[in-house]
Amino acid sequence: MSSALKVAIAGLDEAIGDVLVVLVGKDGKLGPEATKRLGKAGAARIAAAAEAETFAGKSGAGLSLPAEAGFRDKSTHVVLVGMEIAEGQKQDFLKLGGQILGKLPKGRNASVLAAGPDGAVAPEAVADMALGMKLAAYRFDRYQTQKKGDDADAPAAGAVTLLAENAAAARRELKTRDAVYSGVTLARDLVNEPPNVLTPTEFANRAAALEKLGVEIDILDEKAMKKLGMRALLGVGQGSEQESRVVIMKWLGAKDEKAPPVAFIGKGVVFDTGGISIKPAQGMEDMKGDMAGAAAVVGLMHALASRKAKANVIGAIGLVENMPDGNAQRPGDIVTSMSGQTIEIINTDAEGRLVLADVLWHVKQKYNPKFMVNLATLTGAIMAALGQEHAGLFSNNDDLAANLLKAGTATGEKLWRMPLGPEYDKIIDSKFADVKNSGGRYGGAITAAQFLQRFVDGCPWAHLDIAGTAMSSPSTDINKSWGSGFGVRLLDRLVAENYEG
Ligand code: BES
Ligand code: MN
Ligand code: ZN
After folding, report:
1. Apex CA 18: angle with CA 34 and CA 58, to 5°?
2. Which entry of 29, 279, 366, 414 is annotated as an active-site residue?
3. CB of 296 closer than 8 Å to CB of 486
4. In the chain, is it the N or the C terminus that has fewer CB atoms within a 10 Å radius of its CB?
5. Local mean pLDDT, 10-residue blocks, the chain (501 residues)
6. Cβ(351) – ligand 1 distance below 6 Å
7. CA-CA distance, 56 to 348, in Å (whole number)?
8. Among this protein's residues, is 353 annotated catalytic?
């Protein structure tokens, strides 16, 4: 599926691989560890070469030099990677890890001297560098049978060893990072999978595989959903040959298994044609990623269970396929949601909110969580507003919003808070039912959020509109994949910082 990069951690003095990466600061400045490692003569030669190439040590800049006689190191190549950042900024070691990977010659084993101009890198930061490399190395090549080896857009290095001052501590830190890595990888894999493979039932099976990590799994089929009255969700799937599913995942890691949980809910539209309000052909293939919210929830549960998070967490995903068909839902239809509220369907392409309405309501009634956070590739409007840099954050609770914003800044999975209010809410009042599923073009991301808010029953709640950040992602230092896995690191951090121990 995805070729994982091997990253090990060893002591500062060990020599592994034939390429040595040295981190340099402003104006090519080397730290004491690098000087010791390369010898005075070697360090001087590097400084001279760096100067000749006017290598200033800017963050992410790279320079590869043959390690000629005079170097004390056994490596055949020395690769310089700059780590200079603007004054007052904090070094982002996750990004630096990804940048380093990009500078490594293909197929060679490399060691990275985890020490900068100001001395050795702290154990947590070493682990962040390792995670950054692994995330950057991810490729989804499961269906590429021809492109292999040098042709492939493959990760650069063979294996990487980080040489760290406190290797044992860094290795311990890396263990929790590996749990997060596996969660992000799972989310990316799910988003990248084609829609003929990843049907709602197949998606449910993949979520059910979390059972081996100690996650309790509960799958609702259509019969069970009918019994609960989830007619908003079922209406979306009724034009598809594929049966809809809801999967509930429970991780009970808190000291008190009975303590109220926190809950994460994901939109899992495995393919969104728009239904009868069908989408234009151009770019419709991207709608295989309309389950990225659900993918992030499954990835998050995988991460939390793998690192045995000390928290009670519910993950719930609504899985449907939105298809046009003789039996498909029509504009004008009125459905009764599980909450009892009736919904007039204005546009069958505003389907995600219908799916979430029933899953949010169900989770609130059944688990009464401390809060609910839902993730959804909900609107094109959020992309018009925020582009692909920030996900939209909507919340009825300032503390929850603040915690989310903080986790966003810390992980680089950035959020931007958007407004909610009664003026927006009344736009979705319906002439024929309690609420309508589209408020039209103006403020489209906001009226979508207002719709969801009508189904949270007063529970502290936040909605993350990830349409711009979860798929078709621009290449970054730590992500070269179409599906970014957005949300897994963010919410893992939210739980770790606020709801454990
Ligand atoms: N899945 C789409 C939103 C989307 C668009 C996600 C582009 C990712 C990329 C969603 O179901 C949708 O179609 N929303 C409509 C709502 C409208 C009909 C009220 C939209 O945004 O146009
Ligand atoms: Mn749609
Ligand atoms: Zn959709």
Report:
1. 45
2. 279
3. yes
4. C
5. 82 84 89 89 82 80 73 78 90 96 89 94 98 97 80 67 97 97 98 98 98 98 98 98 99 97 99 98 98 99 98 99 98 98 98 99 98 99 98 98 98 98 98 98 98 98 98 96 98 97 80
6. yes
7. 55
8. yes
